[in-house]
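Bumping with the actual sequence this time:
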Amino acid sequence: MKSAILPLYESSEKYLVKSKGCYLYDSEGKKYLDLEAGVWCANLGHSNPKITKVIKKEINTSIHHGYRFSNNYSEKLSSELQRIIGFKNGASVFLSSGSEAINLAITIARKITNRKKIIKISNSYLSAFGFGGISPDNNDLINVMYNDEKSIEAINFNEAAAFVLETGGASLEMVKFPNKIFVKKLVNTAKKNKTIIIADEVTTGMGRTGKWFGFQHYDIKPNMVVTGKGLGNGYPISGVTVDSKIAAAIRKNPIRYAQSHQNDPLGCAVGLEVIKTIEEENIINKSILIGNYFYDKLKFLKENNKDKIKEVRGRGLLLAVEFHKNVDGNLLNKMLFENGFVFGFKLNTIRLLPTLIITKKDIDKFIAKLTDLLKSL
């Protein structure tokens, strides 16, 4: 049967019929260990019963209400995000995707500062559209070379509305973490020049790196924090949360922005349950332990395959295995998928962002198969 879906990204011909916990099931009855948590969203596992319960309850109450009303879920979710971020007297707005939220955060920064330029680290990702579509040679985009402190000195921060910080991007260069001195110098220089700091936590947030947010590994304070993916555990909700100064500036000089699913009660109810579940089940501490276990297993594999594995990178449950050029990564990627493992692959690198509830048994299963397949390459 010819697919009726536009082929805008590469996909297999497999059809998914069920997602549960750490596993995916296709129409042929085959079971796959999901080491990508969907698109890095299902931090609490697919079809998490607590999240599902909230969704079932809220669809019988109110999914969507338009512009004339507010709802308690959005107010409470904003308060909870401010609490775990460390903001007081700030505010939030809730949208559907991380790309929307990043674009809105940049728009807010540009209107508040009356500047146009955007700074980002060269290997970080902005969004799937809007400002994310700015080409590298566009005058409004300033790329700071990854971990290059000298390149910071060449930037005119007085022209920059925002510095968008992603602290472990999984999209462009497959899980690389900027060093602390480089990030602190960038942030401090930006703040001295009144450039707004936007922490992009769409991928690195909600416990993914062993803390609530990736920026918390760097001893810095952003002005805005953008959340998505894990905030809805697969349900499409994202957020822009701003500090008290940004909130006050917007209240003084209002910014008009309205889209169909802004502050919808269902998405916000899900976000609240995600935060509650992470805290009640001590998910972040558990993910640190299981993340260290996964990382140590991968490092041990590297030590025994130095001719094949170039580097292992990891922070929490955001991990990558980069292979030397002599390894046919495309073939390895295909063989692992055929053996029931779902993960990311690019630049001869395997990307691993499993659910935060993954078990040692699941990890051991993947390591055993990867070890076995490396022997044949």
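The tokens above came from a reply further down the thread. The longest helix spans residues 283-303.
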